[in-house]
Amino acid sequence: MARWLADGNIEFLGRIDEQVKIRGFRIELGEIDNAIRKIESIKDVAVIVRNDNTGEKAIYAYVVSGDGVSSSFIRDKLSKVLPYYMIPSYIMQIDKIPVTRNGKLDKRALPEIEVTIGKEYVGPTNRTEEILCGIFSEVLGISKVGIKDNFFEIGGDSIKAIRIVSKLRGAGYEVSVKSIMYRHNVESIAEEVKKILLREYEQKEVVGLIKPTPIIEKFEEWNLSKPEHFNQAVMIKIKTREVTTIKRALSELVKHHDMLRSVYRNKQLIILSSSQSKMFDFKVFNFINEVNVIDKIKEESTRQQGSIDLENGPLLKTALFITDTENLLFICLHHLIVDGVSWRILLEDFHTAIKQIETGESIRLPMKTASFKAWGDALEEYKQSSKLRKEKAYWEQVVYEIEKGCIEYEDITEGKGYGYITLELSNEETKKLLREANKAFNTEINDLLISSLSQAIGRLSGQKKVTIGFESHGREEIHRKISIDRTIGWFTSMYPIVVDYKEEVKESIVTTKDLLRKVPNHGLGYGLLEKELDNKRVDLYFNYMGEMDAEAREESSEGDLCGLSIATENRTPGYINFNGGIEKEKLSFVIRYDMSKYSEETINKLVNLFKKVLKDTVNYCIIQKECVKTVSDFDSNKLTLAELDEIEFIYNGGIKNG
């Protein structure tokens, strides 16, 4: 409210809007009111904020309509014009809006909307929410998930979103990864879930030539000394030592997942039929009453990893190690046919098959999604799409800046080959990183990891920009719908990011978070456009693979027993490579570096500094009292006035409130 003064100035008297703050977001109730009034058949509306039965503030909407109008119909209409957090949590149809004698809304006369929920936990209210809560609980490794729990605050990330989509499909429903990532909680996500009506993809064996994808072309460009010894492997504890049971389960996996029958000939992957394929190798090693068992397992695992025949197959090697205390199953796949998401699918299907065999059931695995062969064809189409063409200017600018962020080599090093250094956080430190630190800036774990790494490099070298070769899961939306959430293969996208070094923790997080959100389609297009760009070498690569064992803690893995997955002679994409994830509830990284470029002392300094900065960043985030929203938290197509009043962004070298 303001008034004109006699001298022509305007005197500000105060605010008369109805702006409120809910779960860290400033919301203008008038905008919600106006949006509801525009819905056909709505005659009158009142929007208020009151505490719900959990004690939290929530948006309540009361509507008057000549026709019966459902809450889901209203929410669906609002979702097209408002961000998810402005959609009322509670909606009720009433005969008329109560008013006072003065004609103003009588809030006290509005009826209570009956809800039966507890203070700490809000349970599902329908079948869809019930299924989603169960799947969230399974994928996130949490005993109980409520419909209002924030996906990221309980350990969610993009890889887990893919797993949720996959498991939901197995239950006969579908939803997009994007819906999970942007709607955040079960209550909101459930509104996007749809029943699957038709069987979309071929369920019989898929065979034939695969069109080279960017990552497979990259593998060939690396010109590895021992391309056959470039694998990923796991070692899992299993209860059974029945060879027949294990081999039958593995056989069903190879029949079901077509990529496991691949061979690599003349620089191309070819999927063979079951009758043509060698399927898998399986060996048994009895180490009962043996000494130095751990060393023997590592030695034999390394031998198995180095024995893959790319041209003739199989690309799947397995071995059962029987010891005095446990049975360990070694599973090794050439990297050409597997990635981090694929491992989660494979291990889940393996355990499903084992249980079905032991209970006398027929083996029934969830339905297939699109084959990797179909994905290769779709990417070839996507290369010509207008959607991809729009990304080219963005990637040209990134490539232009790559050299500004390179990490200088040391003039004198005496080393040859590659060295390894490991980094590990404690269980408690990892828990803080996963469950608590992301609330302060509405971040994902990669935002904090990359922010901390850029700060560590900046402090060590003094450089103002840091170039990082970033790896993501690569299962992104393209020009047409294609479901690949249960597809095995190497989908990884590799692309450069150039991070501005910021001394202050807050500025570093905000800058990094907004940078990562601006990357078009999570970097998928870079590999498709790379041949058209004036490409430059990236020195450092970073790959965080997520929480590897959240879904199956009872069948824990023993990754350190797998031996050598990559031959020592093989070069790596960068001169410094960070590869890590969370296993046994601990964050750990293995840093592989070129000893002809950097000394052990320098890399040790970098790793120790990264660990310190990361721990400091986590602690800084935990003590923040309010959630800070940045530009990337909002949909620019639905930006509201309240949001403009709230956004924090980088301006002239510092953070400003908008």
CATH topology assignment of the domain at 384-429 and 443-451 and 461-551 and 567-602: Chloramphenicol Acetyltransferase
Going by CATH, what is the homologous superfamily of the domain at 384-429 and 443-451 and 461-551 and 567-602? Nonribosomal peptide synthetase, condensation domain
Measured as a percent range, the helix fraction is: 25-40%
Q: What share of residues are in beta strands?
A: 15-25%
Given the helix and strand composition, which structural class is it?
Answer: alpha+beta
Q: What would CATH call the architecture of the domain at 384-429 and 443-451 and 461-551 and 567-602?
A: 2-Layer Sandwich
Shape descriptor: globular
Rg for CA atoms: 27 Å
Stretches where pLDDT is under 50 for at least 5 consecutive residues are 115-119
Number of strands: 24
Characterize the largest beta sheet: strand count, sense, and whether it forms a barrel: 6 strands, mixed
SS element count, helices: 19
CATH class of the domain at 384-429 and 443-451 and 461-551 and 567-602: Alpha Beta
Spatial order of the strands in the main sheet?
Answer: 17-22-21-20-18-19
N- and C-termini, Cα separation: 20 Å
Mean pLDDT: 86
What does this structure look like?
With 658 residues, this protein is an alpha+beta fold. Among the domains are: 127-195, Orthogonal Bundle (Non-ribosomal Peptide Synthetase Peptidyl Carrier Protein, Chain A); 208-368, Chloramphenicol Acetyltransferase (2-Layer Sandwich); 384-429 and 443-451 and 461-551 and 567-602, Nonribosomal peptide synthetase, condensation domain (Chloramphenicol Acetyltransferase, 2-Layer Sandwich), CATH 3.30.559. The protein has 19 helices and 24 strands. The strands form eight sheets. A six-stranded mixed sheet has the order 17-22-21-20-18-19, sandwiched between helices. A four-stranded mixed sheet has the order 11-16-15-14, with helices on one face. The chain has a three-stranded mixed sheet with strand order 5-6-7. Helix 3 (127-140) crosses helix 4 (158-170) and helix 8 packs across helix 10. The chain is globular. The two termini are 20 Å apart. Residues 115-119 have low confidence and may be disordered.
